[in-house]
Amino acid sequence: xxxxxxxxxxxxxxxxxxxxxxxxxxxxxxxxxxxxxxxxxxxxxxxxxxxxxxxxxxxxxxxxxxxxxxxxxxxxxxxxxxxxxxxxxxxxxxxxxxxxxx
Length: 102
What we know:
The protein is mainly alpha-helical and 102 residues long. It has one domain (3-78). The protein has helices at 3-17, 20-31, 41-61, 67-79. The N and C termini lie far apart (106 Å).
């Protein structure tokens, strides 16, 4: 596969899946990482695409939540109790002003 074909395939897949923002964010994140410093562009783009697709599968599994958010909500549902309110509210009668004629 030639270089241009790989870039076209990656670009097409990113646009088709609608993950352009995540893909660009991953590339930007990789700029500051030491282990990606000496990789060529082809390897960086391939790695970024696989990484974003892997994260997308995780989010689909959890309903769009990260694993931390899902754990928080599951734990909250298991520990949260609802206690019915025992207070009864009665409405007081309205006070009418006395109109005295002098």
